[in-house]
Amino acid sequence: MNAAGANPRAAPSADINAIVSGRHGNPFVVLGMQGGGDQPLVVNVFAPEAGEVTVLDRKGNTPVETLERIHPDGFFSAILPGRKERFAYRLAMTAGDHRWEIDDPYSFGPILGELDEYLLGEGRHAELYKRLGAHPAEVGGVQGVVFCVWAPNARRVSVVGDFNGWDGRRHPMRKRLGVGVWELFVPGIGTGHRYKYEILGVHGELLPLKTDPLSFASEVPPATASIACGLPKYEWGDDGWMSQRAARHAKSEPVSIYEVHLGSWRRGAGGETLDYDALAELLVSYVKEMGFTHVELLPISEHPFSGSWGYQPIGLFAPTSRFGSPKEFAHFVDTLHQAGIGVIIDWVPAHFPSDAHGLVRFDGTALYEHEDPRLGYHQDWNTLIYNFGRVEVSNFLQASALFWLDQYHIDALRVDAVASMLYLDYSRKAGEWIPNRHGGNENLDAIAFLRDTNQRIADLHPGTLTIAEESTAWPGVSRPVGDGGLGFNYKWNMGWMHDTLAYISLDPVHRKHHHHQMTFGLVYAFSENFVLPISHDEVVHGKGSLLGKMPGDRWQKFANLRTYLSFMWTHPGKKLLFMGCEFGQEREWNHDQSLDWHLLDDPMHAGVKSLVRDLNMLYRDLPALHELDCDPAGFDWLGADDAENSVYSFVRRGRNGSPVIVLCNMTPMPRPGYRVGAPSAGKWAVRFNSDAAEYGGSGAGSTEQVETEAVTWHGRPQSLELDLPPLAAVVLAPAE
């Protein structure tokens, strides 16, 4: 056995030592077949598990030459006698009595094409996920997996996994110098292998093993390895839904969203989480019964800590493995679509967790984040902020958005924490942030990223929606980019939520002093296209349940809840309700256990569920309640100032007139003979009464038809008189 470098035919000893020690940054100049033509044809192989290595001509699979071990740790080399031109070959290896054959990873050429390099360099590769990540593929007639990862400042990157003993010396990758992407085709492996990247940082330091930023599947947490599986291969059956989606997403259509955390919506008999298949069957049945148009999922991107509810994701291209495989998630979406239910996912491009196996200092530098914590660190969440000004990072995030729409037929992205993206001084004191180039607090890079992403989504996936969780007065969030807006389709109306919850939490005796809290939302209701959100954020962190916010005795609590939900469903704006609120969950939401479905044995809880179901049906059936949700022509106050009685009355209209009258009595006092102006003369039918006995109410109030009189009221020449039930909302429509 010769010492390293003793064989003059082999690579220089420095290169051999670097390969053997796992420190060579350019393995393709050493390993595989070298030379040819005027130079000797040499094959170099690093195979520490082998006792003997022989080169085979793939044509006929015939032996050519047995290599010489020239380093005791397993570096083999030999000149191929009588050969001058390179040829396709395999390697036969033996270890004791065991013999096996492989294709040499270092016998394959570059993977990325010139167009890929150009688009990656420009940060405009819309299908980044089709090139980076781990993709089962056939190269040169050989089956294997192509690995590609961006790590421009790394000294060396190796793919490690259960196929090579997690040994970073075995599969070092080729660096594409122009774009900083490392690539390698590993033959002979396929779907299902666990892998990570072993990286030597910019100073040659060995970093913690990193998961693939573009992995499409991961191990079930707390395990963290990526799983080679490629893009999901699924036979979709939702053509009917997809062909109608754009029409269903018009602003004139009803949108009623059921917000769901999959891990705690419903669990098995033993408290175990259900998988995507079981959830699809149960959720479809329930959502159809309840009349919601869409399901919104708290983030399903892979995340290490369940207690983050998915809002600290690491796998922006992988549905969480907690509930099954990528194919099973596709089936989940498909099942909802075939039932006529849209699917919205929460998408988190604002920040990422600092777990060592994730994106943090991915190649030993602040690659995805900012180096300066005044730009790159979220104080509130102990997370890192993406560097939106780096084209490769914005490309990565934008590709994630497009990925879910393209590969999983997702209908809308609700973008989390937009306010934290827009402002450089978000939740920071003076001196803790860096102004932009104009001296302002706007994050110009994040603004450009959001506008560009929304525009590309609109161009590439027409009919899909983006919805901003944005809690400030930033102008034009839901206005088109061409009109100077951010380009979202909708914005969560956080102000409406805060004001109305503050009001409804008051004892009714005090409400007359806070009457404006229910009317103020109409001052700005049409400045954006709004979604009215009663979300998970309102039932966690000590805030209690929605029912628990209601004042009074048990009956009043339920009556207040029914009235509040009725006000929400008749108010301009699309609707969003977090799971459990639709039947009056009593305790605060806990992500580690199921909702309390047993409460539906109680008629009061069952009554709230029936009320929400009927509100959804009413919202769908009456064009006046949805067609002009985003248009001031769809709303008129009748009585906005009856603070003494704490009664609100207003008209909703559709595009062709078809008005309805809504009255909300916010006190436990019945209001007999209450007069309200009417938009037209004639008979008006009571279409809905939240105090109905079937909802758990008292059954009071006018129940059938009311005819107008020529009595001027609320500035209308016609008015009607009816009995208002206590703590209740009533909806009237022209009698047929």
UniProtKB/TrEMBL annotation:
HAMAP family attached to this UniProt entry: GlgB
Subunit annotation: Monomer.
SMART domains in UniProt: Aamy
Domain spans labelled Glycosyl hydrolase family 13 catalytic: 259-626
Organism for this UniProt entry: Aquibium pacificus
Stated role: Catalyzes the formation of the alpha-1,6-glucosidic linkages in glycogen by scission of a 1,4-alpha-linked oligosaccharide from growing alpha-1,4-glucan chains and the subsequent attachment of the oligosaccharide to the alpha-1,6 position.
The organism's taxonomic lineage, starting at the top: Bacteria, Pseudomonadati, Pseudomonadota, Alphaproteobacteria, Hyphomicrobiales
Annotated protein name in UniProt: 1,4-alpha-glucan branching enzyme GlgB
Leading EC class: transferase
InterPro entries in the record: A-amylase/branching_C (IPR006048), Branching_enzy (IPR037439), GH (IPR017853), GH13_cat_dom (IPR006047), GlgB (IPR006407), GlgB_N (IPR054169), GlgB_N_E_set_prok (IPR044143), Glyco_hydro_13_N (IPR004193)
Family from the record: Belongs to the glycosyl hydrolase 13 family. GlgB subfamily.
Pathway entry: Glycan biosynthesis; glycogen biosynthesis
Reaction catalyzed: Transfers a segment of a (1->4)-alpha-D-glucan chain to a primary hydroxy group in a similar glucan chain
Entry keywords, A to Z: Carbohydrate metabolism, Glycogen biosynthesis, Glycogen metabolism, Glycosyltransferase, Transferase
Enzyme Commission code(s) on record: 2.4.1.18
